[in-house]
Design goal:
Blueprint (H helix, E strand, L loop, with lengths): L2 E6 L5 E5 L19 E4 L9 H9 L12 H15 L5 H13 L10
Antiparallel strand pairs: 1-2, 1-3
Helix pairs in contact: 2-3
């Protein structure tokens, strides 16, 4: 099922539309202003990476150049990059903790004592 991008003649906004059937395609309307005057655009091609390719990308020494295992901000950046590359959703609590660590640089930010 392709996703096509369109530009509206009236408001010039871009819209992405999922086309479920090319044979029975409904008229495309602008999601911003509702106009039916739309031009289909050429969009970039995207191909998903295999898990092996994602792991190789993470292990590339060029990607680890700025990593300092003693710097919480550096580790938080790396963890976010690794999560995004692997397509893993760490959840809002962990995401907020990584953001807080990146902002403050405190290794124990957001971690409760036991």
């Amino acid at each position: 099922m392709p996703i096509y991008e369109y530009r509206c003649h009236d408001c010039r906004a871009r819209s992405a539309v999922l086309i479920l059937s090319l044979r029975n395609q409904a008229p495309v309307t602008c999601t911003h202003c509702g106009s039916s005057q739309m031009d289909r655009l050429l969009s970039r091609f995207s191909a998903p990476k295999s898990e092996e390719a994602r792991l190789e990308s993470l292990a590339d020494a060029d990607n680890l150049g700025g990593l300092d295992e003693n710097d919480p901000r550096s580790m938080a950046r790396f963890m976010k990059t690794m999560g995004e590359e692997m397509g893993e959703d760490v959840g809002p609590e962990i995401e907020a903790m990584m953001d807080q660590t990146q902002d403050s640089g405190d290794a124990s930010a957001g971690i409760d004592s036991q």
